[in-house]
Design brief:
With 180 residues, the protein is of the alpha+beta class. The structure holds zinc ion (ZN).
Length: 180
């Protein structure tokens, strides 16, 4: 396994305080979590460090990272190296991107901001034969494609987080601020 592949084995170096016991969460002050009805939500989001070809070091959710690796492997088997331009983006980075008129349909609450989306390089999505291979590889890996959005976003591959998106973004941001 080369350094250029998504690391499967490196578990996140989270400080122990980032993962309080369920008991602590239940009895802690209300402001420990941002949404009282979803006290255990953040247990379902876990950013892990990955190294994406092209992008380099970034973070993805631990359930999403293996799917991206599978997409890379599937495409490779069909002769295409998947190169990425984006992985995790903080809400601040996402807000900056929204001010860039050249950016493709950046959402306000982006799955990039909870580690459930990646973008591939233009060389791939602008080349139909390569894009077809990557799309098939992604579908096989359980990922969905932004090209199916009403607002066409062809570089974007994603999966839906297990909790509500805004909540997932908050959880990811809290983790990112501790591990970055
Ligand atoms: Zn994207």
């Amino acid at each position: 396994m080369s350094r250029s592949e998504v690391s499967k084995n490196s578990l996140p170096a989270l400080p122990p305080t980032s993962n309080p016991s369920p008991e602590l969460q239940k009895t802690g002050p209300v402001d420990v979590v941002s949404n009282a009805e979803c006290a255990d939500c953040c247990d379902k989001i876990k950013l892990v460090p990955v190294n994406l070809p092209g992008k380099g070091d970034t973070y993805l959710d631990e359930s999403f990272a293996p799917k991206v690796q599978s997409m890379i492997d599937n495409a490779k088997a069909n002769g295409v190296d998947v190169i990425f331009v984006s992985g995790y983006r903080t809400p601040e980075e996402q807000a900056l991107l929204r001010k860039n008129p050249r950016a493709i349909t950046p959402a306000e609450n982006s799955l990039h901001s909870c580690g459930f989306a990646v973008d591939i390089t233009r060389d791939l999505w602008a080349d139909k034969s390569k894009l077809d291979i990557v799309r098939e590889a992604a579908e096989k890996a359980g990922l969905r494609w932004g090209g199916d959005f009403r607002k066409y976003d062809p570089p974007h591959f994603y999966a839906d987080p297990p909790i509500e998106r805004k909540q997932a973004i908050k959880c990811a941001e809290e983790q990112y601020n501790k591990i970055k």
